[in-house]
Amino acid sequence: MDAMHLVLTDTDLTDCLFSGTFHLDQIRLEGRTTFADPPTGQRWRGILPIRLTRRRTLAEEHHWRAHTLGEDSGWHRPASQDPAHTPDPVDVAALYRQLRKAFEDGKNEPGAADFYYGECEMRRHDPTGTTKGERRLLWGYWLLSGYGLRAARAFTWLLAAMGVTVLLLMGIGLPNHDPATTGTLNGSKISLNTSTPDPALHGGWPQRMTWARTEKATRVAVNSVVFRSSGQNLTTAGTYIEMVSRLLEPTLLALGALAIRGRIKR
């Protein structure tokens, strides 16, 4: 079928197969267009709980996943379909890419987000057309932010990273004593003397896990999110912890902002 200049309005495409369509990137979908949904509810993959996010999917992805994971995975496939004719990830990725372009050309970029998600999913599972290094990069992109489309996931990782940073700083990053300034008054002259002790850390965990040290560690973590130095006196380990957090946490914040932008972009 040639989809050039084809306009579909209020169409149910849950079981529609797009494989073999020409000029799919020029199709126009108007009104309430319905696509297939991923399986609902929580499922288990080994010992790991799996809950799929809501998005619009193509029937071809359902068929491939049902063929790969089995019918009990929740993905559906016609019983009469020949397994040899099941599209592979590289074919499904091309379909998602063309539909994404069709939505973007129609100035519906938020609507194209699900097709971008599906395209990245297929590329992540494609061992032939995607290199191992690229698949690992896509896996990390999916894990941290759902390909830059799941803001809640990115902000959850951000809060977790900040929590780990605070705990590490309280445990091994903050010294026992901060620089202290003392002064003496001789007539009308004031003499100030600042003593900077070595950033040493002593004492057991009860002395380290205090509210005062929590406040200092939180200040360091918050400043790291906005890519600023806290100016706190830190141990050698604390300096490296701050350096890592200043690289990782702003990245997670940017991924969360990117996900929000992708859903509201006009």
What does this structure look like?
Helices cover 48% and strands 11% of the residues. It is mainly alpha-helical and 266 residues long. The chain folds into two domains: 7-146, no CATH class; 155-255, no CATH class. The longest helix has 29 residues, at 236-264. The mean pLDDT is 84.
Alpha carbon gyration radius: 27 Å
The overall number of domains is 2
The tally of strands reads 6
Supply the helix-strand structural class: mainly alpha
Mean pLDDT: 84
Element string (H = helix, E = strand): EEEEHHHHHEEHHH
Distance between the termini: 31 Å
Q: Count the helices. How many?
A: 8
Give a quick rundown of the structure.
The protein is mainly alpha-helical and 266 residues long.
